[in-house]
Amino acid sequence: MRAIFADLPEAIENTSHLAERLTFSLENIGYKFPEYPVPVGHSMDSFLRTIVWFGAQQRYAAISPKVKRQIEEELALISKLGFPGYFLIVWDIINFCREHNIMVQGRGSAANSAVCYCLGITPVDPVENHLVFERFLNESRKGWPDIDLDLPSGDRREAVIQEIYRRYGKHGAAMTANVITYRGRSAAREIGKALNFSPSIIDRFSHLFASGDFPHTMELEAQIEAAGLPKHHPRMPAFIRLYRAIYGLPRHLGQHSGGMIICQNKLSSFVPLENASMPGRVVAQWDKDDCEDLGIVKVDLLGLGMMSVMQDAFELCRERGRPLDLAHIPKNDEKTFDIMQHADTIGVFQIESRAQMATLPRMKPKCFYDVVIEVAIIRPGPIQGDMVHPYLARRAGKEPVTYFDDRLKPVLERTLGVPLFQEQMLKIAMIMADFSGNEAEELRRALSFHRSEERMRKVSVKLRAAMERKSIAPDKIDKIIQSISSFALYGFPESHAISFAILAYGSAYLKVHRAPEFYASLLNNQPMGFYTPATIVKDAQRHGLKIKPVCVSQSDWRCTVVSDDQPSPQSSGRDRDQGGAPRGGREAPVRVVDAVRLGFCVVNGLRQEHAEELVRRRQDRSFKSLDDLKRHVPFGKNELRALAELGALNCFAEHRRAAMWKVEETLHDDLLTPSGVVAAFVSNAEPKIQALGTSASTTSPLFPMTLPERVKADYETMNLTTGPHPMKLLREKLPNIWRAIDLVQARHGSTIQIAGNVICRQRPGTAKGFVFISLEDETGVSNAIVDPDLFERFRLVITEEAFLLIEGQVQNSDGVVLIKARDIKPLVHERLVGSESHDFH
Fold first, then answer.
1. Are 320 and 561 in contact (CB under 8 A)?
2. Dihedral through CA 637, CA 641, CA 643, CA 649, nearest 10?
3. Model pLDDT for residues 374-423, shown as the tens digit of each residue
4. Could you give the CA distance from residue 347 to residue 532 in angstroms, rounded to a whole number?
5. How far apart are CA 480 and CA 470, in angstroms?
6. Are residues 213 and 767 in contact, defined by beta-carbon separation less than 8 angstroms?
7. Most buried of the four, 373, 394, 637, 764, by CB within 10 Å?
8. For 447-485, how does the pLDDT look when each residue is reduced to its tens digit (9 = 90+)?
9. Torsion angle of the four alpha carbons 641, 647, 653, 659, in this order, in degrees rounded to the nearest 10
10. What DSSP element (H or E) covers 809?
């Protein structure tokens, strides 16, 4: 450059000076958070203060000096940091949800804030629960506070998202992006296609090595060899090299599950935007971390399936004249805690997983705070920090309750001396090292997921020095630092656990006291949770709830709660014949109970608009025959075949195959008569046909399905059955196989066999390669544990077979039974079909 500008040497010097003076970062792009339009005479500060104190009067029967001090301190900090507008906009979103009957609940660190509690953003009182506000907001925090709003998934959540687009314009709001990268299966599929591998090899790899499968128990070369590619294949080295080269590289942009960014002006001036594939949505091409680095504010609108279930259930309760809502559910219901203590929690929020069910009988929840601990304890932090077993042992009285230091008793007493929550870690630092709330939060951040070695070392030295100045014993200092360091990485916030525990307790209460409404809503919101509709239906039936099959004359699109006349317990059904008519000319005692009628939504391949058209037509008049239905509802032939096969057309036919026969008949004009061909097949059935009032030309020559055939047809058309569980059909042939319900009687250490339909395969990252398998039979669910070597030996059987027979050693302690597998075989059956499995999630 000096040679080029030899005649102007000062140009080089001036350029250097100018570069030194220019200081630009992407934080200076001009982004501004929207201002909230406050009433005349108010600033955003004064209006926030007004509505917070109004909310405090609603929330607290009497505002104590402690509450008043906490609110004043929070308001002062919010004002100092310039965040009033953010709190007002979130408060406004909450109000929109309530005005439009949409359940909403704030969670995460926002539940540490008394201001959020008074604004109705969160349901958790941080003062009563001794939560640490600095975990949510502090003076040294870089960036905006983070408030997560849980909403019912589906249309209700989408209504809130669309309202934000409406308020701020198509270019003033956007969903944040997720950068989807190449992982195990996606990388293998792409490379396999490029190298022209057989589709069967690629599919086999995907089946054997599911997403979430524990990654380092088997080398990649061995994995692809197990999928069918020989070790010495000429393209094997290229596959391995390319797989490793693209692993972790960006594949495409997706949408964040709920993060939305909003702007005072045009967001498109600062952030590249694109239309989403979903109509009515705009997506930013930056992910949430990019937005946070640039100071762009994100509001998380997260969809929770259980909130949708609960809102649907509450609405069904109201429609049926027994109203209920989350705020008025009794707090200490014995029956609700009883199902938790017995791990009877299929379908219950957060405590339905295998690991939670294994903990519940040991935990024996007796109050709401026990549920808070239960929600938090089965997490990577407590598990990896080896805190689960000490806590449960102390709770059972097998170990004494001890503390690092007596000064920590007020902090750790509720968790029996074992730190389980992030807030406890902050308080330990505040008590033992005299850290301020800001310093304690800085400690947590330094040790958190995005930990920096230098930052972590610096803050640990500061913590150690502060404790040494207080003359704390060196061994105690080491224990405290080790505990904080191991736990900070995955520790669960107590505020978060309380928010989730409210939903866990509420859903358990609904399961006990509003079972029809709960199960109907659960089925209407599938897929969600750990269990398929097939398992949910069987669980409902085991609890005495009648599940009625799909019927074109009775079902709606969604599952519904209906009244069902049943013989009273005194009559026990003996007063009625098989058709339900009373015997002996007298009226039998009858009781009316609620049942669930399955909706058309459970039928595979049935279009919603066709089912809704049927329901609309049926409201005007009932259909007289299958031909009448075919004339007025635009069902396709395959849709009618499915309805006939599952028994939904039995109201127009003697049995399923008769309906299937009728579906195949051509619909004739009234002026013409059907072909007489059918009559030749059914001449022998004439007396029976005439007795039923049906013409010979329209009667099926086919025999009715057997019970196993009906169950098989149910699973093929709906992936569930209202009939017997497939295992019940095999039970007589399995005399030595233990039923799930009987396992509590199995002797610890004995060798037994269990069998069933595989409903869950799990390989958690914290389990060191062990695999957990859940088998369902007609009485419930049994669980087996498979060590890594045995899993690799039987990988093909375990991952591909729907029904398994497992032999192993019984581990029976505290009412929790687990079978440690020794041998695994496919269960021999006559082409039975079972439910799908929830695998490696």
1. yes
2. 100
3. 998 887 666 665 678 888 889 988 999 998 888 889 989 999 988 888 88
4. 10
5. 14
6. no
7. 373
8. 665 555 667 777 778 888 889 888 888 888 888 887 777
9. 20
10. strand 803-813
Angle, alpha carbons 552-558-560 (nearest 5°): 85
Backbone angles phi, psi at 275, to 5 degrees: -70, 135
For residues 317-322, give the mean pLDDT. 92
* 204 Cβ contact list (under 8 Å, min separation 6): 227, 228
What is the rounded distance in angstroms from the CA atom of residue 656 to the CA atom of residue 637? 16
- Are 786 and 770 spatial neighbours (Cβ–Cβ below 8 Å)? yes
H/E run at residue 737: strand 737-738
Q: Return the ∠ at Cα 502 (arms to 500 and 505), rounded to 5°.
A: 105
- 693 pLDDT band, cuts 50/70/90, is very low
Which among 503, 594, 154 has a CA at the least distance from the CA of 310? 503
C-alpha to C-alpha distance for 824 and 786, rounded to whole angstroms: 9
- Pairwise pLDDT comparison (32 vs 571), residue with the higher score: 32
**What is the token pair recorded at 408?**
């920590």
| Model pLDDT for residues 735-777, shown as the tens digit of each residue | 889 999 999 999 999 999 999 999 988 877 666 778 899 999 9
Longest Cα–Cα distance of the chain, Å, equals 122
- How many angstroms separate the Cα of 813 from the Cα of each of 358, 765, 768, 817? 10, 24, 22, 7
What the block records as the tokens of 119 is: 């604004």
Contact 420, 386 (CB under 8 A): no
Share of the chain above pLDDT 70, in %: 86
Please give the Cα distance from 157 to 304 (Å, whole number). 9
CA distance 474 to 36: 53
| Percent of all residues in the chain with a pLDDT value above 90, rounded to a whole number | 40
Q: Please, which pLDDT band fits residue 487 given cuts at 50, 70 and 90? A: low
Strands 590-597, 546-548: pairing is parallel
Cis peptide before 527 (omega within 30 of 0): yes
How far is CA 543 from its chain centroid? 23
The C-alpha atoms of residue 218 and residue 78 are separated, in whole angstroms, by 52
